[in-house]
Amino acid sequence: MLDRLARDYGLPRLALTAVGGSAPGWAAMGFRARDVAPGSALAVKLASYEADARYMTREPDTHG
Question: What is the pTM of this model?
Answer without folding.
Answer: 0.86
